[in-house]
Amino acid sequence: MSNLRLILLLAAGLLPFATARAAPADLPQTGQTTCTDATGAAIACANTGQDGDRRAGVAWPNPRFTVDGTGNCITDNLTGLMWARQDGGFRTWQLGLDFANSLDLCGFTDWRMPNRKELLSLVNYSAGNVGIELLNNGFTFQVESVLWSSSSVAGSAAEAWTLIVLPGVLSQGPKSGGNYVLPVRAGS
Asked: Three-state SS for 17?
């Protein structure tokens, strides 16, 4: 009965009702510095409203990535995530999860397989070749690889999201198939 009274008092405006608001997220810039028209031709960016014009978001740090003292891990100075520099091999999705969750690397044991948004955070859309860009920033995995995410595809328990590194696009793959694992952990 007391819950009903509280609801009635709130509805009548006799008790103050405050709403919580989340702070805006600090989203990184996309890295896009050019603009295109509807046909894909390059155009001047001024007043287009495209990412290359607005460049909204948190500026990318320089350097973007820092290799740790062991030479085995790399920290993304934009997201704060720590990545294994080298992939953990070609595995099924479940074996990839097991591998990442049991990894002991660079003095840390809290490694895991990244979700699809974390994988996508590695992509610099202004780079002509995403894989080469990652190699130039300290990663040592195969640029032609497809990387597993821990994110299952909605409506399909048999598939998970993957990142095709070379073009930097998300795709779906059967969990029974094989892809590479790039373990990640929250930075310190």
From this structure: coil
- 36 with 110, same domain: the answer is no
The backbone region for 67, taken as left when phi is positive above 0, alpha when psi lies in -120 to 50, beta otherwise, is: beta
Residue type, 55: R
Q: Which amino acid is at 100?
A: A
- The Cα 172–Cα 180 span in angstroms is 14
pLDDT at 151 over 80: yes
Residue span of the structural domain in which 132 resides: 63-188
Cα 163 off chain centre by: 10
pTM beyond 0.90, yes or no? no
Residues 155 and 140 both lie in one domain: yes
Residue 15's CB is within 10 A of a number of other CB atoms, namely 11
Q: What is the pLDDT of residues 37-87, one digit of tens each?
A: 999 899 999 989 888 888 887 777 899 999 999 999 999 999 999 999 999
3-state helix, strand, coil in the chain (%, to 5): 20, 25, 55
Tell me whether residue 96 is in a domain.
Answer: yes
pLDDT at position 26: 63
What is the structure's pLDDT at 89?
A: 94
Q: Shortest CA distance to 148 belongs to which of 104, 107, 188, 88?
A: 88
Domain identity same for 55 and 125: no
